[in-house]
Design the sequence.
């Protein structure tokens, strides 16, 4: 019998919520999802990340003009304790990634990347002043309202070259239509060593990798861009394909938000890419698009669209044994839902949910 799992939910409210998902509760024939409590942290804790060696330690952005980072310590209780705060090094931090000793932060509105030294022990944040890096910006993009400046939207390590002793950091820049490539210099700080060029006006938001291929989610055009990962150069994408089976005429207000590619395992041996589409006018709500890589890692194929009943579907996250479960939420409606992967990962079915009155404006998730 599978045991219950906690899930933390970042949101566009003032709190990080704690849920409990039970795949096979003893008093029910169906999985259950329950609200256990919430932790008040401040304005718009929209993105959360855990410490890699201490699951009780969660870092949250406060997506606001004077960007901040909150450090939350969880124990046996559902409500955590904010044990440290720091400036994010810019405005509207929208993404962060924690290593053992460093917090990597993307500040959307100010166009800055920042780092903070951290520890799993008190005082948790080791310097009140973040180190920052501004990205070059040549000219506004085709989307004048969204591409007037640099907008870093994710900080993630490349998993493609695992033989190199140097880790490479990848940062999609929605404003510049680039994915920046960074490596650490001799002074211990990150430095730009190249970039990948995306389609003009695409607005790169998030990325995932498989084998030697990088997939970039283009928020503004609802597409996936496929890059065979090159040496240090500025190669254009090999191809781009729509995340919608029937794309509406342009211009339209639909955008994409999240892209996930869970590792294969014995239960799910075939790789699939999962993409959240936002603001679909259909009464059935937004969709999750599922792409198969059966034809090769450079040939993703859209095989399934799952109507979710959610509005402005933003965050998704896989969890549980063999990443069997996917949790997702609608910022503007539909609440939070847990889906089970079926047909080997080719499809999804809802198994549990909570309404927007219980978990308002959900934006990101972590399985504890």
Sequence:
């Amino acid at each position: 019998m599978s045991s219950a799992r906690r899930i933390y939910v970042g949101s566009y409210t003032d709190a990080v919520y704690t849920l409990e998902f039970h795949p096979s509760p003893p008093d029910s024939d169906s999985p259950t999802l329950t609200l256990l409590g919430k932790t008040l942290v401040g304005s718009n804790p929209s993105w959360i990340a855990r410490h890699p060696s201490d699951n009780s330690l969660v870092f949250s952005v406060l997506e606001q003009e004077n960007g901040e980072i909150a450090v939350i310590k969880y124990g046996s209780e559902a409500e955590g304790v904010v044990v440290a705060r720091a400036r994010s090094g810019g405005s509207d931090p929208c993404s962060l990634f924690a290593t053992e000793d460093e917090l990597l932060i993307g500040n959307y509105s100010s166009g800055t990347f920042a780092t903070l030294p951290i520890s799993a022990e008190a005082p948790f944040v080791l310097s009140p002043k973040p180190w920052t890096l501004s990205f070059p910006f040549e000219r506004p993009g085709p989307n004048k309202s969204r591409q007037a400046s640099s907008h870093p939207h994710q900080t993630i390590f490349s998993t493609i070259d695992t033989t190199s002793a140097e880790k490479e950091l990848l940062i999609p820049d929605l404003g510049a239509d680039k994915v920046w490539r960074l490596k650490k210099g001799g002074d211990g700080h990150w430095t730009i060593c190249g970039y990948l060029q995306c389609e003009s006006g695409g607005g790169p938001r998030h990325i995932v990798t498989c084998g030697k291929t990088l997939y970039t989610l283009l928020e503004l055009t609802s597409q996936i861009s496929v890059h065979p990962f090159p040496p240090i150069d500025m190669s254009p994408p090999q191809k781009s394909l729509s995340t919608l089976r029937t794309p509406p005429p342009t211009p339209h207000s639909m955008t994409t938000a999240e892209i996930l590619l869970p590792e294969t395992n014995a239960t799910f041996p075939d790789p699939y890419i999962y993409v959240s589409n936002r603001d679909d006018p259909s009464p059935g709500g937004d969709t999750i698009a599922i792409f198969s890589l059966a034809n090769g890692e450079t040939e993703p194929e859209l095989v399934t669209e799952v109507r979710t009943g959610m509005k402005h579907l933003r965050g998704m996250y896989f969890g549980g044994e063999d990443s069997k479960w996917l949790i997702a939420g609608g910022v503007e409606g539909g609440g939070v839902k847990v889906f089970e992967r079926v047909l080997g990962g080719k499809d999804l079915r809802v198994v549990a949910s909570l309404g927007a009155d219980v978990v308002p404006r959900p934006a990101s998730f972590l399985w504890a």
